[in-house]
## 1
Amino acid sequence: MSEPILPPAARIRNIAELARLAGVHAGTVSRALADNPLVARDTRERIQALAATHGFRPNQMARRLRVQRTGLIGVVVPLGHERRQHLSDPFFMTILGHIADALTEHGYDLLLSRIIPDADDWLERIVDSGMLDGVLLIGQSDQFAAIERVAARYRPMVVWGGHRPGQVHCAVGVDNRLGGRLAGERLIARGCRRLAFFGEVRTLELEERYSGLCDAAASAGLARPLQLDTHLASDVMPAEIAAHLDTVLGSIDGIAAASDVIAMRTVRALADRAIQVPGDIPVTGFDDLPFAEQTVPRLTTVRQDIATGARAMVTALFARIAGEDAPSVEMQPVLVARDTA
């Protein structure tokens, strides 16, 4: 018996219509479209062909809710410490690209949010939304306590950031204190004796980088490095760097920047003042973003392997979604010596 043919302009709107057309129950259609082996192969193929012919696409969100899986991972950038910073920041763009690639390989989509934590329960609202199978946080910002509170009851969450002894939440990141020490040791090996740190210290990662720089100075018998607040927001960073240089030039001979972006801006500001890098003042960065080897001069920096870290985050997250334990991962930093130091 031949199957009825719908007019060319007609489209199937729901599973019930497709079931009537195929002469089967709606449950059989649902299972066939999900490629469930409980439905005979020839029946599955016939139903799938009918769906394609008549332009039917099942409601994926409804299906995901039925199986209690949304297929979405929340990727959240909390900016309590730096409200003017944008997702276009080179660090965010780099790590987001690697995370998106890894999630896609697992068959998941991502829901990206830039969050200004104006309410104490900002993270609870995200994890309790029912929209997500898990959450990846890009940075701890100044929200360490909030992250710890939620991690105590919500397992499928992994954070890019630092690690403190005894912390509850799973974090993936570099040993920032060692990285800061490597930068300081490089500057000291270049002959620097009066160091400065361009960066603020309101986040765990940046605080640790400054502490590592202080460790290197103390080991060499040098004075504690100056710490000069330099924000990561691109609209205020250049003016802050210029003001710092106008204040401390002549009293420092080496600069460790909290990030590659700050380092690049600092090198530019020094060039504007006819100060040679590294001849007059060596400069180090932190991150080893792709542009670090493309600037002139090329940046000496501390590498944190962002690609490896992003994949480690995704691997840990899916382990936690599956109910397994996934401990924090602390990667080793590497000093990449280039032109600026």
## 2
Amino acid sequence: MRVAIIHYWLVGMRGGEKVLEALCRMYPGADIFTHVYDPSAISDVIKKHRVYTTFIDRLPYAKRMYKRYLPLMPMALEQVNLNEYDLVISSESGPAKGIIPNSTALHVCYCHSPMRYIWNMYNSYYDSSGLMTRLMMPPLAHYLRTWDVATANRVDDFAANSLTVARRIKSYYRRDAEIIHPPVDTSAFHPVPRSEVGDHYLMVGELVSYKRPDLAVEAFNRMKAKLVVIGGGEMLERLQKMAGPTVTIMGPQPFRVLQEQYARCRALVFPGEEDFGIVPVEAMASGRPVIAFNRGGATETVVAGKTGIFFDTQTVDALIEAVEHLERMDLRPGDAVARAAEFRTEIFMRRFASFVNRSTGGQPKVVHG
């Protein structure tokens, strides 16, 4: 079969692009279609494939301001010619699934989440936007929601990266989805002896409001306990100003530093709600426990009382109570490593291959009559 993979945009290597890497290994002859492509920010695994872009890539400052062109992306997707492909895989988080495959092709969608900015996180994006954006958002979001729901019918089968996302797919699209957790390269992380574990806690991720890094900084300021924060984003400067003497805001760091911090932290703090959340799995692969907000994908990866604990409300008091609770626990690093291994890349590839095979019945889709 000729295979096309549709990915929303290729401007960095985050969780969605790690999934794309695994798909590239599964389908080495696949062509990739995307709205915007920055080869300097993409792995060699992906760059081995032919990458085609929509007209969005040729608009001014597209590689930096691609989200400003969101209203044009439905039109751009529908201009992509997929007539020669038998299998179409859309990787959905931004607009990707709205392509038009040929009538005999199978279209499966691996959904990281329905577009957050028009669905479950619309109000958060609206509240944090400037005046002009707030004036434009309601009509544009209405148009995009209508298009997004309509194009769900262009997908033969959905896979979701978590139960959380499967529920969104059911709520917004009225479609069922098979849950296939995303791949995590757990082999890249290793525990260290207990004697090398430090007394600091760790937060890792993009520093944006919905991940609630401010909650972690404020809690550790109040406790006068050590916290290291790794990541970049729009809140970096604000957090640097907030941080007390026991909180270190490191900003973006190379992978080797991340590996070392994972292995030597007392525990990972994960105060936001994520669709899946690869960071807690990476921490567990390093043998470290996780303190997570009791919502979203972390509830499907962290095992309470065995590989970490949860707190139920996004408040400073609740997070402090969880940290104090963890300090009284004696969790075994081996349990965390074993749990993380359940999300390794090989398992994703095996499950996704089975999903596609069931969708095709072992053969390319054929329309009769």
## 3
Amino acid sequence: MSGMTGSRIVVTGATGNVGTSVVRALAEDSDVGSVLGLARRIPDWSPPRTEWSRVDLASERADLVKEFTDADAVVHLAWAFQPTHDPAATWRTNVLGSIRVFEAVAAAGVPTLVHASSVGAYSPGPKGRAVDESWPTHGWPDAAYCREKAYLERSLDIFEREHPEVRVVRMRPAFLFKRESASEQRRIFGGRFLPGPLARPELLPFLPDIPGLRVQALHTDDAAEAYVRALASEVRGAFNLAAEPPVDAELLAGMLGNRPVRLPRAAARSAIAAAWGLHLLPASPHLFDAVLRLPLMDCTRAHTELGWQPRHTATEVLEEFLQGLQRGEGTSTEPMRGRKVG
């Protein structure tokens, strides 16, 4: 699909953090003919040239071939982060549901599949230098999120061998934030009752500096632009997506006006494990282990082959997200509804 003029794009997970940005970017592109958003709950939101269909990827009764018929591309974004205490449930949605998407793409004769992979698919790697897309994608096996993302990388390896007629693009973004995602991400990772107003620098006596905690961030709208550029080109394969600079305790301390204090990794993990075990914190200690081991990504391929550059720095992304947390920001889809607690 060298151009998108009059094209029909189907987006799974269209009402979440990434989905709302991708749908908006496609709806604003005059070359796109129509967008079909698939979601478990139909939103009130009605972007131009966009239709909605109620689909649950965890259900074997979902007729995905019907939804994908006559589509020029499928952008697969749907993902369930919870329940973290029931990995079988997330496996059914994330892995088995994704495999059904892949199979339906082939059965419906869709020429292009753009799949949302993640930095979480990567095997442990360096924090002092960036790795390109050839770095192994075996994930961190103890963390369900990484295990599932890595499994789908292997599933796509098989899919590409069996269906060379389908152009497959794998996006591997860093942690994605925007103002409107603040309430959703607070619920997913911090818990439903964590007060957003607590995300204020003056309430932190110090900033924990945990060895190995150096990651990358990206504005969700910048990731969406990369998806649109991939749809409008003939590229294949994987693309790393991240903004500069890498995020660590020193950067956060400077941004928030706090002083970093070294906190042993074991102490931080023990606190997270205790809160998770008591169902006070949705984010598991296994995900914490994975984050400490994620490599930094080199995004040269996205810059050169897609002509993509993020418009927001990682610092700007985090500042916007923190403002969203404090104000309980969201948007008019069920997963992204704003809610101020406390």
## 4
Amino acid sequence: MNKRLLSGIMTFALAAAVFTGCNNGDTDTPGKDAGSDKPLVGVSMPTKDLQRWVQDGENMEKQLKDAGYDVDLQYASNDVGTQVSQVENMIANGVNVLVISAIEGDSLGTVLAQAKEKDVTVIAYDRLLMNTDAVSYYATFDNYMVGTKQGEYIEEALDLENAAGPFNMEILTGDPGDNNAKFFYGGAMDVLQKYVDAGKLVVQSKQVKFDEVATAGWSTETAQNRMESILASYYADGTKLDVVLCSNDSTALGAINALESSYDGEWPVITGQDCDIANVKKMIEGKQSMSIFKDTRTLAGQVVKMIDAHLSDKEVEVNDTKTYDNGKLVVPSFLCEPVFADIDNYEELLVESGYYEADQLK
């Protein structure tokens, strides 16, 4: 065993004793096994509160272990301080690579500087790490395309190119601190803005700008509260709501909850993202129209390929070197392509592919 690895393990033993008493996050694995000579990958996920992050973490851990790595997977309970502490602990434990999905993209600058100082490679996972030069790669789905597909779905569902309208639309997008939320919003609005400008799509609440429609923490409760307020203010007189542009499934669930309790009109088109089980069930019920499917197995597999290549001193595969400027550098990225699921194809995409068991959606 080399001196650096031995030193890292001894440092971790001391750090872990302190950290165990103060950590309020969820830790699923203890990290590197004593005496292991396998490379260690730290995986930092934001929360277990959303189903998709649980699946991301599980898929990442499985594929990394299958590829011969030790894995330290931790969830930060949507608390920035916890995530910082967990990443610090991973660095002390001697990780070779960090895979991080940040709670807030620009909140990890100091700890990432520590990673850079110790030559730890950092891969941003699904959420771009902002304002740091310590990130080497970014792996995600094409976030702009996610929004584009949501906008195009609405365009086709309402036949906006041909129908006279007007149609009433409200917008629920994501957390303002998540760089992805702006791409989702931008992709959708680049499709729909011309119809808003022409008066064919009318936002009765007048809340259209990103800052006006953002949902802190991607919270279902926050989305529901805002949607209930909009319904009470603009639709209580029987005005028909035709579409709710929701950037993901947690905001879509908030919209659905509000509509179920406060709206008696014809059900609107509702978009989403992630194909969470609760939302697929709502799709089957006819209450959510579609959800963008981002197969986390695909993304995890791409990250493993990136790690393999990097640790073998081979060229890391990327397919975008222009789009993702984090304020310090344009991060070399690999973008996986998303697809959408609806009532017509969800069984093929989600069940036949093995992503879910059929019983999970009943």
